[in-house]
Structures are given as structure tokens and as C-alpha cells.
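call fold(seq) -> C-alpha cells
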Amino acid sequence: MPSQLYAGTSGFAYPSWKPQFYPEKLASGKFLGYYSTRLNAVEVNYTYRRIASAATFQKWIEATPDGFMFLPKAHMKITHSLKLAGAEEFTRYFLDSLAPLQAAGKLGPILFQLAPTFKADNRRLTEFLKGMPKNVKTAFEFRNATWFSEETYGILRGNNVALCLAENENLETPHVMTADFVYLRLRKPDYNEAEILAIERRIQQYLSNNYPTFAIFKHEDTPAGALHAEKLVRGGLGS
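ret:
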């Protein structure tokens, strides 16, 4: 049985997606429920600045079907303020806050997105990963090219942590596999048909090699990313 594809966008609460994605008269409180009828994953930027309450997560859990995945972004205190150093206590606090998602079977990989000014420090990365629980999938998005080295990849592989394969206008991550799943962040403002076909071919290769794949498009004022993600899901790649 081929591995599953999870596709979505970095957020869902965008009224400007009406009427191309959301129905014109759909109330904002029902956005997530509707979103989850067309896509099966969402990256949660909310957790980057806040510790979400159990009640908030429970509301999201109830609004989405079985098999839907939430991909939380790690809190900025971990990635930007502390820069992984001395972050053990707050990281435990952050991970504990995600317990409702994990208990519901809806916790996808946690994205640790480092600042562009944070240059490679593999000793710090190694120490941080020692404290991460092994039953939680994690992905690291490095936005400084100094991290793209065999030493870093080896550390990630040793901890089954995914190198987030991010496509940006200014920096594209090398296509290096470091975990038993794939995390794609497709961050260009838009993609033409040929580019989407190329992404589909890449994903099909991951799936055929039994790598569960999480593909997240950038949100914009238009629902282009959501529609691209839906095309991937509807295309049967993960079925």
C-alpha cells in the first residue's frame, strides 16, 4: 500500500479565499471544517507566537475528520529567542500543549523554522535533539545556507528528523532525505502548470519509496496555494 500524501496550506483563516475556495456565505467559524473536506493537512502558524489552549485544539479536532493532520510550527521562543540553546524546559512545555492533537491522532510533524540569521551550529543542534521525544515527528527548516552540509544531514538522520525541503524565491533547500517522511514547503508566490507537474512527479517518487509526504503551499490573498494542494490530493497520489 503506497504511503499517504498530506497536502494543505500554511493556515486556513482567510476570508479573501471567497468565493474561489470558500463559499461566499460561509461563516469564518466554519472555515476549518470546510477546508478539511477538500484538504487533509494544515500548517499551524498560530503556535509560533502562542501556546494554544486545550480548548482551542479540541475545537479544531472536532471540526475535522479522522485522518486530518495538524502541522504545528514550533514556538518562536525556541527557534528565534533561545535559538535552541537552554530551551529544554520551554520545549517540554510547548510539546505538552500539543497533547490533545497527539491523543486524537491528528498531530503531524512539528516544524522548527530557524531564523535566516542563525548560522550553522551543529553542536547546539545535536544537544537540542537529544532532548526531543522519539515518538514525535519533527522537521527543521534552515534558512541560512551554512546549514546545508553532510555534518548537519548526518545529525538529522541520526535522530530521524526531516530536512524541510523548502522552495523559496531566495533560497532553495537541497533535496536531501534525512528521515522516514518528507516535509515540503512550497513557498513560491505561484506555480505554473509545468512546475506543479514537476512537484507531482517528485511526490510520486517519495510515495513509491514508502515515504509519507507532507506538502504545504504558501497562503496568499488568493486561494492559489489551496487549489494547488487540492489538485495534489485529488490526483490520487496518496491513494
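The chain has one domain: 5-234.
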